[in-house]
Amino acid sequence: MEDGKPVWAPHPTDGxxxxxxxxxxxxxLTIEPLNQKGRxxxxxxxxxxxxxxxxxxxxxxxxxxMYLNEATLLxxxxxxxxxxHIYTYVANILIAVNPYYDIPKLYGPDSIKxxxxxxxxxxxxxxxxxxxxxxxxxKVLKMSQSIIVSGESGAGKTENTKFVLRYLTTTYGSGxxxxxxxxxxxxxxxxxxxxxxxxxxxxxxxxxxxxxxxNLKNAVVGGFVSHYLLExxxxxxxxNDERNYHIFYRLCAGASEDIKKKLHLDxxxxxxxxxxxxxxxxxxxxxxxxxMQNRKSPEHVKVGAxxxxxxxxxxxxxxxxxxxxxxxxxxxxxxxxxxxxAGVLHLGNxxxxxxxxxxxxxxxxxxxxxxxxxxxxxLGLDQDDLRVSLTTRVMLTTAGGAKGTVIKVPLKVxxxxxxxxxxxxAVYSRLFDHVVxxxxxCFPFETSSNFIGVLDIAGFExxxxxxxxxxxxxxxxxxxxxxxxxxxxxxxxxxxxxxxLGVNEVHYVDNQDCIDLVEAKxxxxxxxxxxxxxxxxxxxxxxxLAVHSxxxxxxxxxxxxxxxxxxxxNLRDDEGFIIRHFAGAxxxxxxxxxxxxxxxxxxxxESLVCExxxxxxxxxxxxxxxxxxxxxxxxxxGFISVGNKFKTQLNLLLEKLxxxxxxxIRCVKPNLKMVSHQFEGALILSQLxxxxxxxxLDLMQGGFPSRAPFHELYNMYKQYMPDKLTRLNPRxxxxxxxxxxxxxxxxxxxxxxxxxxxxxxxxxFDQIMKSDPDHLAELLKKVNTWLLCSRWxxxxxxxxxxxxxxxxxxxxxxxxxxxxxTVRMWLCKRKHKPRIDGMVKVRNLKKHMExxxxxVNGLKEGKQEMAKQVQELAASIDALxxxxxxxxxxxxxxxxxxxxLVKCSEQLLSSMQKKKQEEEESERLKHIEEEMEKERxxxxxxxxxRKQEExxxxxxxxxxxxRKQEExxxxxxxxxxxVIQAELEIELALEREEQVQRATILExxxxxxxxxxxxxxxxxxxxxxxxxLDAGLRRGPQVQATKAAAGVKKYDLSKWKYAELRDVINTxxxxxxxxxxxEEFHRRLKVYHAWKSKNKKRNDDGxxxxxxxxxxxxxxxxxxPMTAQHQEVAMNRQQRYFRIPFIRPAxxxxxxxxxxxxxxxxxxxGPWIARQMELHPDKRPIVLVAG
Length: 1187
What we know:
Layout: E1 7-11, E2 15-24, E3 28-33, E4 41-44, E5 49-50, H1 70-82, E6 87-90, E7 93-97, H2 109-115, H3 127-141, E8 145-150, H4 157-172, H5 177-193, E9 194-195, E10 203-204, E11 207-214, E12 220-228, H6 233-236, H7 246-254, H8 257-263, H9 272-275, H10 285-290, H11 298-303, H12 313-326, H13 331-348, E13 352-354, E14 362-364, H14 369-379, H15 383-391, E15 392-396, E16 406-410, H16 413-442, E17 450-456, H17 468-499, H18 512-519, H19 525-533, H20 540-550, E18 557-558, H21 566-569, E19 576-581, E20 584-589, H22 593-596, H23 603-610, H24 615-622, H25 626-631, H26 642-658, E21 661-668, H27 681-690, H28 693-700, E22 706-709, H29 710-718, H30 723-726, H31 730-741, E23 748-750, E24 754-757, H32 762-769, H33 773-847, H34 849-858, H35 863-886, H36 891-917, H37 921-1018, H38 1031-1034, H39 1037-1048, H40 1058-1067, H41 1071-1094, H42 1109-1117, H43 1124-1132, E25 1135-1142, E26 1158-1165, E27 1168-1175, E28 1182-1185
Parallel strand pairs: 7-21, 8-17, 8-21
Antiparallel strand pairs: 1-2, 1-5, 2-3, 3-4, 6-7, 9-10, 11-12, 11-17, 13-14, 15-16, 18-19, 19-20, 22-24, 23-24, 25-26, 26-27, 27-28
Helix pairs in contact: 1-27, 3-4, 4-5, 5-12, 5-16, 7-12, 13-14, 13-16, 17-18, 17-26, 19-20, 29-31, 31-33, 33-35, 33-36, 34-35, 35-36, 40-41
């Protein structure tokens, strides 16, 4: 960390705040906020991050920041949001913050034109840029694309989806009516499928996957909408501040007087299915005046209209009617839709009361007679049949009497109410299916080459009361989060590994265990719920207990009493369960889980609507796949699992997503109040963490978000290449292309089969991937130029290589001559060497003849005879020399004659010695004696040498035996140490695994608490800290054991400041305290340097320092006060001073007169040396001070 640089530290509401490090604690850092000088707080080291040099600077792509961490990500989003830049990139993922107001010119026609065909990154971030990227990827890669729009309820998913559809149809439409129909279908779907919730005024209560299909010319030819999990419980019941589906209110507010009279409509408060929630209309000041007073509820008159810049019930009704006309719905079909909607409203107003008879049944209240008539007329049903079907249930007997006998079983009031609500849900859900079907019919297509799909599905939901709908929605989000992890993190890293890029691995939380908890066969929550539905008398309580019993020790599931909210702690174990999702823990109340999981009607109700006089209503149920199944179980409530149906749909959706390319838009909700220009940092940080953005930052720090296979690039350019370029292989062509564009080697990396691009290089990547013929021809021209330059360089290098080859050939010719000369010399030498050696030996023998002459001359008797023999021997030697020179003789022949001459010379010499023996007898005897004596001594010496060698061998054998024994002992010790080391490594691995598990649990608990805090801010009271509970209950055995171990320590230094540790190390005379302070001091420095290494700059020069400068400055300005004990010890210590002469050991003999004598001065503070000094005559003084 640079000196004096601020850091980001956690903040409960803002997410992070700027501060300075002033001290290093045991596991924490002491931070002084910049805006609150003098105040400090503690923060975990893992939650403190370095800040940018300019915290007010903002960038389009977070990957361009100096430090890539969650704090700088949040700050960049905050700065951009305050400047109305609501879109931000994280690599090629778009973060969209809901502004809650219309930003001028952000989505206009000019903006659409500006993004057409532009590379990602060349213009500011925008949802249009993602849409255009998906289109260009589909066009270039010939592969369908998906855009996944995700986020919490109220984050702006639906609006961003509409912008994507509008951009694609406007920019790449075929100019026909089909483009307008795709856009106009959205208001119709929103009217029937969207509603106001406490978190979002226009919340989609169903999921949809909108496919825009393109032909071979990449023009729009049609579309298709798939829908998932309509929230049917909302039809009959809403919370206080929530509304039913928009269509009910829009029909009441905007219908003409003729339609109102025909459908018997009134104000929303007059209908049971509307008056238990919010009955106010969405309206502006002008449109509120246009709504007639008799259509407004008392609540609307008293409080006023609901305000939203995008919603207006009366205006939206008129726009919906226009949209219906544009997509091909005539007035008759439009009236059919309104008639069924009104019929559902009137059906909800039918009330029941007990008959008072012994049968225990119920009848309609007198005041419900008119309502029953309205409902029957609107739905084309017989009034009496409807009354009977709502108050009785038809059963077929299977035993006792005649088989197949029909019995009508009267229903209680509660059962009749449930039957009425079930019919209303069935009618409305089938009406919604029909609306989606008609929408798909309005933009048909015969053939499709590829499509771009936009997924808009409800985000992660958590309310004060969560039921089956929230359970299914959150299960869906778990699956989508897993898909995100696989596509962005897991598959990305596996691809890097396969291509050999060497990118560091990024760890992320795998939520597969949570998905298995929900969907696993037999033991999954959905299968347990289905099994409960199949029982003769299913109950929600039995279902909840079964879930708890089968997942007793599951980390992701727990009982409600462990919730952070007091309202959930009041639930019994058989009334709900808590699931720890990737975004936090949610408590589900299992009441009506069993009922909501069954999508079937009683036979009597099913038969009633199937035999309706109204053709439209009859077709709604005839087209349903569930009719046939229900008829097979006449009189008995059939079972059609909503949960498993949704699971099947979801798996099909994910298969479709996995088969397409994908782009992600992460929508973020800036505040809970749904107002503009209010940024709640902690709320947004939680959403960014849950959406995986922090993990993406870690991956993109060293990753390559864009890539293209070599062969695809080559094939794209092949048809425009001249013949000389088509001979290049794809990899070489790509290399030439990048060099021609002037890309640096650090901007891209070659894998085995494709090329990868760094973050921020999307513009260059898209420039390469554009398939415009003029653009491709221009790029090929650059490639040709680069190839010419590179080939000219190759020609130059070839010329130099030829010159080098010529010089090498000359050198080798000279070398061959030298080799030839040497070989000839060797052959000649091998041929004549025996004769030369023989002549040398014979000539050496001839030299000895002079000695013979000297011996002859010294003889006194037989001198003449001996001289003659010597001459004969000399003549024989000369004759042999002449013979060797004249003829080619072998070594054996020469040696034979030579040995004969030697023998003659020896005989001659022995005869001469005999003659001279008598003359030198005395000298010779003496000489012999001396020789014998010398030989005897030599033998003795040899005997001693032999004994010594035997002794040495014996000692050597003993040493070798000892060495082998020691080697065996050493090997045994090494094996024992290896075993111990392996055991230690296993223990360390287990400890590391436990630490990771503890960290995961702590992270999950932190998210759970944040989630609970967010709910508690508006809906419930947060549970007080565990400090109010009994100490034995709030601490587990592991924590208590840790505390007990900590209590054994003599000194607890975890709360000591950095300055206090430093001063005690410098001044203390307590050995135990000094050792403990040193250990704690160095442990803190080690933790600090590990944190510093983790958060180092990208271009960090590696400069090192013991602690941040801010820590040392703070410690100097605020010295730790000395304790009373230390003051007392300091006062009682004796101060002593010494001066001692000494001489260095090296100078002891050089300077016998002690001229170089030095002095040692010492100051003792009690038993410790406080200061010492060495003085030397020829060196500088040395001063040492304690500490």
